Amino acid sequence: MKAGIMHQVEEILKGTTTERELAEISRLIEAAKGKLRLKDDDGGFWEGKTACWEMIACPPELKRLCPAPSFPSIPCWEMEGTYTKLSEDGMKGDDTQICESCRVYKRWGGGEPVRIKFFNKGINISSVIADLASKNGLLRQTARRSLVAIGKPAVTFLIEALANPDKQVRWEAAYALVTIRDTAAVHGLVRSLEDEVFDVRWLAAKALIALRDEALVPLLQAVMERPDSTWLRQGAHHVLHEIGAGSTREMLQPLMFALEQPCAVIAPLTGRTVIDTLTQSTKQRVVRKIRCDWKKALLLSRV
Fold first, then answer.
1. Which of 99, 207, 223, 286 is the most exposed place for a label (fewest CB within 10 A)?
2. CB-based burial label for 206 (10 Å; 0-12, 13-18, 19+)
3. Where are the domains of the chain?
4. How far is CA 93 from the centre of its chain?
């Protein structure tokens, strides 16, 4: 090894102060080993074949996390924790059923039974989430983009991150959910409308706007349950203003007007029956019911 490279490595290790930083260096070394194996005369399983990450056009954000590019001597369907094997909640990476219908396996599997033989090197979403707290801005950005690329399996982790004590983690999580647009995050995003940090509240509102009608009922439920929350009322008003268009905007106008009034106007709407109606109705019935009740509330407030 060249002396210059050894010196650079030594300098990097001197600046390493946490276990997480050491783990990241270790991961990068493993990835580098995988790249070296690709250049060996024995190219491993994928020598002379189109590799899985090429066949499915795997984005760079996933390639850096998925074990398949790092360990090319092993076919992807024998690996635990590849992207396609991740469960919807991201907790497991051993679903081999998808492999049986995958065009990569059909092309290169030779009809052999699918069995996982390579463990504990797969995508670790918790580790990526931890990088959102890094003081290194580039590492945080890379982690966020990786979570967006992972998509739905990362949503459960991102919802938890919205309640992280670190405001930077909450900001990064909300930013990622703006792009992912998964309805499973709607309640967490509504809660984040009350975050103490304005930028987090703004991103949470932006993510709810991206969900459009799916955000309507949970948002209004929260407003009726916590009508004295100024931040929630402001956020709800902003979201409703952006969601409403055409006839929908006209129907939402009474709600938006009421949100501009003292919280006593909203108090009459906090009854259990209204909440139940909201959770069981279609969008059209919800809007009609709420519009009627808001009008009643406004009349009562003037008595």
1. 286
2. middle
3. 18-108, 212-303
4. 17
